[in-house]
Design goal:
Elements (H helix, E strand, L loop, with lengths): L18 H15 L31 E2 L2 H6 L6 H8 L9 E3 L4 H14 L2 E5 L17 E5 L6 E5 L4 E5 L4 H8 L4 E2 L12 H7 L16 E8 L2 E4 L12 H5 L8 E8 L1 E2 L3 E9 L2 H13 L6 E5 L1 H8 L6 E9 L5 H13 L9 E4 L11 H10 L11 E7 L9 H17 L1 E13 L2 E11 L5 H18 L15 H8 L2 H14 L14
Parallel strand pairs: 2-4, 3-4
Antiparallel strand pairs: 1-2, 5-6, 6-10, 7-11, 8-9, 8-10, 12-14, 12-15, 13-14, 16-18, 17-18
Helix pairs in contact: 8-10, 12-13, 13-14
The protein binds flavin-adenine dinucleotide (FAD).
The site of flavin-adenine dinucleotide (FAD) has 39 residues, from strand 3, helix 6 and strand 10.
Length: 531
């Protein structure tokens, strides 16, 4: 059988942690937290008892609709800690009744028509890497998942305009593999790149791992083709347009509530060959963040400009745990980046940073870069190697949250978040820890990304996580940040976060648009707004 996605771990079935991996992890956790941690055996999906499907697709849809346990379990949730914990425990209280994998626009129309006419909730599904409960079926009498993974082709490349027509269900690696022979790249690399799709990126306004300039999927969209219950929506291919509000902006970030994106024309670019990288160490976290501000305001536009706080630099980049690390990287298909990195390093040194000259790596595409990467290389390996969830259901609570804030409110914002998170972590779990890095930086402010963990009680992970998450949602919005910078809203960031942040009239406007496109309110109800 072909290697399938794991129904509970992050990644393929062949990459799932083994019982031996989990036992070793349990021992490490027992030592670290001073409590007895045991690893339950890897679950067997054959033991899962799912509610029987409440609907049967008509004959004309049967060829691409599935109701077997694997399909329904795999599409019962996304990739968040809570999704994985439930799946590991074979806890599937609300699986989709039917999972469809349409192969053509005709089949897509047929399945959406069936949902529209029958009033079945329809959940668009890319790869299911949502970490905000964006693909879990809603609590409705019936639900159908519309998985887009068979829409997996780059259909056309316009070399002259540097754009490509790409189907929405293509996973990151397959997309890049199809662009590579012509020397192009989309150059959009979210950390979930291996297991996420173009349609998911557009629907969630995803952020790639480049820290400045063109990094959000928004920047690459030229036009979108989307099926709504009321017909097709297709924008005109244009490099820019001042013709009123943008139809594409309406779709980007719509999280599957307005329609199903079937394909998009995307701006592509030549693959970079010139690179330059440096890791600058700071004795103080806030001196480092100020260096980042100065570099981004100098408009040098590094591809990467991340700062890791001392805790994160210790854990992910091999530093001692008492210094922050600023990672600066430039790349280009056209020009040597030696001058740009020199200018950025000079600013960083002027702001109190330390770096030896031989820790500046310059690669002019000759095949023999100068310098060595040190902590930066260590950080890159840990960033790419996402753990599949070895510690799932062992009592450990762990999550991340990401936001953004203008520079005038930084570092007070950070202090407020740390104080509130310190309080809630001390209350809810033992040995709670919080760390921060910037994933993206703008001339007017950073996008801080917080990671937290602590030891809770085995079996109570989800309710304990919820207490911490409520506090995180609340403090981020109260302190002036956004409820999400790139992970999307889904259902998770709604009540005490997104619903507080967005203007009420804006929510009413989205509801009005939804009524026009989706009059029966079947598309992903409960995500972003209540219809
Ligand atoms: C380990 C990990 C790392 C991550 N790193 C990043 C990161 O660096 N940057 C980032 O932005 N996000 C990140 N995420 C979050 C997630 O990967 C993104 O939200 C991603 O864009 C979702 O893509 P997907 O194809 O998996 O969509 P899904 O998870 O399947 O769906 C996400 C949302 O989009 C809707 N949707 C999906 N496809 C379509 C379509 N064709 N038409 C209409 N609606 C659709 C769904 O209904 C849902 O609301 C990460 C997640 C994980 C687990």
């Amino acid at each position: 059988m072909a290697d399938r996605m794991s129904f509970w771990a992050w990644g393929l079935e062949s990459e799932e942690p083994t019982d031996a991996d989990r036992n070793a992890m349990a021992n490490q956790l027992s030592e670290r937290y001073g409590v007895e941690v045991t690893a339950k055996p890897i679950p067997d999906l054959a033991d899962a008892e799912l509610r029987p499907p409440r609907i049967t697709p008509p004959d004309n849809l049967a060829e691409f609709c599935f109701t077997d346990t694997y399909e329904r379990a795999r599409h019962a949730g996304g990739a968040h800690f809570t999704d994985r914990t439930r799946a590991f425990n074979l806890d599937f209280p609300n699986p989709p009744d039917v999972v469809s994998h349409p192969r053509t626009e005709g089949e897509l129309e047929a399945i959406l028509d069936w949902c529209h006419e029958g009033g079945h909730a329809a959940v668009p599904f890319g790869a299911g890497s949502s970490v905000v409960w964006g693909v879990a079926p809603p609590d409705t009498p019936t639900s159908v998942t519309i998985a887009m993974d068979r829409f997996d082709q780059v259909l056309e490349i316009d070399e002259t305009s540097r754009a490509a027509r790409i189907q929405a269900g293509v996973y990151g690696p397959a997309l890049e593999a199809q662009l590579k022979p012509s020397g192009h790249t989309l150059r959009h690399f979210p950390q979930s790149f291996r297991f996420s799709t173009l349609g998911g990126w557009i629907a969630t306004r995803s952020g790639g791992h480049y820290a400045t300039n063109h990094t959000h999927i928004d920047d690459f969209v030229e036009s979108i083709r989307m099926l709504t219950p009321n017909g097709w929506w297709e924008s005109r291919r244009l490099p820019g347009s001042g013709a009123g509000p943008s139809p594409d902006r309406m779709v980007i970030g719509s999280e599957g509530i307005l329609g199903i994106i079937s394909e998009a024309w995307m701006r592509i670019q030549a693959r970079p060959t010139f690179r330059a990288t440096a890791g600058v160490v700071f004795d103080s976290w806030y001196a480092g963040t100020d260096a980042v501000r100065q570099i981004v305001q100098a408009k040098l536009w590094p591809a990467n400009l991340r700062i890791l706080d001392p805790a994160e630099a210790g854990r992910a980049a091999g530093l001692e745990g008492d210094q922050a690390l600023v990672i600066i990287a430039f790349e280009s298909a056209e020009l040597s980046q030696a001058a740009a990195i020199a200018a950025a390093v000079e600013i960083a040194r002027g702001a109190g940073g330390h770096i030896d000259d031989d820790n500046i790596v310059i690669d002019d595409g000759t095949g023999s870069p100068t310098g060595h990467e040190g902590a930066v290389g260590e950080w890159r390996r840990s960033f790419i190697g996402v753990d599949p969830g070895t510690a799932t259901s062992m009592g450990v609570l762990a999550d991340t949250f990401e936001t953004s804030i203008t520079w005038d409110r930084w570092p007070d914002f950070d202090a407020t978040v740390r104080e509130e998170m310190g309080r809630v972590l001390a209350e809810v779990c033992s040995k709670g820890e919080l760390s921060c890095r910037f994933t993206h930086v703008y001339p007017d402010g950073p996008a801080p990304y917080y990671t937290w963990s602590g030891m809770g009680r085995q079996g109570s992970e989800i309710s304990m996580w919820q207490e911490v998450k409520d506090a995180a949602n609340e403090v981020v919005v109260r302190a002036g940040g956004t409820s999400t910078h790139h992970h999307a809203v889904g259902r998770m960031h709604r009540p005490n976060a997104y619903d507080v942040q967005r203007p009420d009239l804006f929510a009413d406007s989205i509801r009005a648009v939804k009524r026009t496109l989706d009059p029966n309110g079947i598309l992903n109800p409960g995500v972003l707004i209540d219809p």
